[in-house]
Write a structure and sequence with these properties.
With 302 residues, the chain is of the alpha/beta class. The chain has a single domain (39-160, 170-296), classed as LarA, N-terminal domain (Rossmann fold, 3-Layer(aba) Sandwich). 29% of the residues lie in helices and 20% in strands. The strands form two sheets. Strands 2, 3, 4, 5, 8, 9, 10, 11 and 12 form a nine-stranded mixed β-sheet that branches. Strands 1-6-7 form a three-stranded mixed β-sheet. The chain is globular and about 45 Å long.
């Protein structure tokens, strides 16, 4: 999509472009807050691809999210130069299945990308995700490296920790953003799942966000809407995250969870560690600020 068309799309949605080129957002703290709990689908038997398909089936299939002609982004975690067995990145079979289902639902294109922490070429290759997407015999499926020239400075109205930040335009302009994180330990946020996975669409010095991850991750999730979050808990890195190394801290769990609500998805992911989701500061804060529902007792689990 050309920049001119992108800005027209934002204007129709209620966005206003400032003279500085920044894109002020609507009051998403209220407009996008989830007031009615969305169901959570959990699949617990089968291969990573089968688990992914079963979780989506319980939510009505990918057609409930992707319509004919949609542009789709699948945003996995590809941040680390690690193999699938080491649990630092989203399982390649989960990512491939999501792309295949989006194509089957009629997507005009499906893009996969991440702003990695280690060397991007090594991360894409060693994670297995590049080969998984390249194996799809369909020109609509594309895995690309981020282009540093394609960030837009976005103003986040009512942001507490983040008031503006450069965000990756292909993620903002997609009709459907599928957030596909892996569940794992994180030394600073305790756990990293869907909300933190969105740091992969941030430009600039992302390390600054670590000064206040609790509100910063909520601000980011208000600015970048996850239309569907699919949580890879096929294996879980229990310690040494987010990078990990080796398989000593990796537990095979064999589950995939999915929800329209990124907070619900993250709350479920937190239970893979045997903890109360409200004990994780950014999940609790997301619930308090109305981003979504972290109280799983109020969520229908399919």
């Amino acid at each position: 999509m050309k920049r001119r068309d992108f800005l027209k799309k934002l204007a129709k949605a209620g966005f206003v472009v400032s003279a500085t080129g920044a894109l002020p957002l609507l009051d998403l703290s209220k407009a996008e807050a989830e007031t009615t709990p969305y169901p959570l689908a959990v699949a617990a038997e089968g291969s990573p691809a089968e688990l992914t398909r079963e979780a989506l089936r319980k939510l009505g299939g990918m057609g409930a999210f992707v319509k004919d002609g949609d542009s789709v982004v699948v945003k996995p975690n590809i941040g680390w130069d690690r193999t699938p067995e080491e649990g630092a990145n989203t399982h390649p079979e989960v990512v491939r299945e999501l792309v295949m289902m989006a194509l089957d639902a009629g997507a005009a294109e499906v893009r996969v990308f991440d702003r990695t922490c280690n060397d991007p070429r090594r991360c894409y290759k060693r994670s297995g995700i590049e080969d998984a997407i390249d194996s799809i015999d369909d020109s609509r499926a594309k895995i690309t490296h981020v282009d540093e020239l394609r960030y837009e400075v976005v103003e986040i109205r009512d942001g507490i920790s983040l008031t503006k930040w450069p965000l990756y335009r292909p993620a903002l302009e997609a009709d459907v953003l599928i957030n596909a994180p892996v569940v794992k330990h994180h030394g600073m946020s305790e756990i990293t799942i869907g909300m933190k996975n969105l740091m992969g669409v941030m430009g600039g010095n992302r390390g600054r966000l670590h000064r206040d991850l609790t509100d910063g991750l909520v601000d980011l999730s208000l600015a970048v809407k996850s239309h569907l979050t699919v949580v890879d808990a096929t294996r879980v890195l229990l310690a040494g995250g987010p990078q990990g190394g080796g398989t000593g801290n990796v537990k095979k769990v064999g589950k995939v969870g999915a929800s329209r609500d990124v907070v619900t998805a993250d709350a479920w992911g937190a239970t893979m560690f045997g903890v109360d989701p409200f004990s994780i500061p950014h999940i609790k804060r997301a619930h308090e600020r109305g981003l979504g529902i972290a109280d799983l007792s109020k969520v229908k689990i399919l």
